[in-house]
Amino acid sequence: MNPKEKKTIQIDEKELVRLAQSGDFKAFTTLIEGYRPKIFGLALKLAKNREDAEDIFQETFLKAIDNIKKFRAESSFGTWLYTIGVNVVRAKYGRDSKGELLPLEDYLPASHDHSDAAAAQLYDWNDPLSKLTNEEIKGKLDKAIHELPLKYRLPFLLRYTQEMSVQEVADTLNIKLANAKSRILRARMALRQNLNEYFSEDN
Question: CA 112 to CA 108: how far, in whole Å?
Answer without folding.
Answer: 8
